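User: I've been trying to design a sequence by hand for this structure and keep getting stuck. Would you show me what you'd pick, starting by listing the structure so we're on the same page?

Assistant: Good idea, let's start from the same input. This is the structure you sent:
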């Protein structure tokens, strides 16, 4: 007959320092994730605004500037 091993018997309990560092790590990851999502949202918003502006403006192709013929140096 096999006896059931209680859950958590062999799992070490984290020390108070480990628990504090885990809380700090989770908070840091949350901050970084929030900043990343805010940055990606801003980038997407600005990209859409740029595309809308480009669509609204007519495309102007600049004409090539006329070049003056070069003066030839007189040979002696």
């Amino acid at each position: 007959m096999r006896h059931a091993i209680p859950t958590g018997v062999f799992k070490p309990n984290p020390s108070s320092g480990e628990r504090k560092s885990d809380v700090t790590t989770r908070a840091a990851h949350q901050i970084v994730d929030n900043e990343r999502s805010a940055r990606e949202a801003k980038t997407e918003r600005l990209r859409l605004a740029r595309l809308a502006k480009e669509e609204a403006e007519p495309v102007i192709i600049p004409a090539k500037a006329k070049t003056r013929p070069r003066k030839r140096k007189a040979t002696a």
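That's my pick for every position. To get oriented when you compare it with your attempt: The chain has one helix and no strands. Residues 19-58 form one domain.
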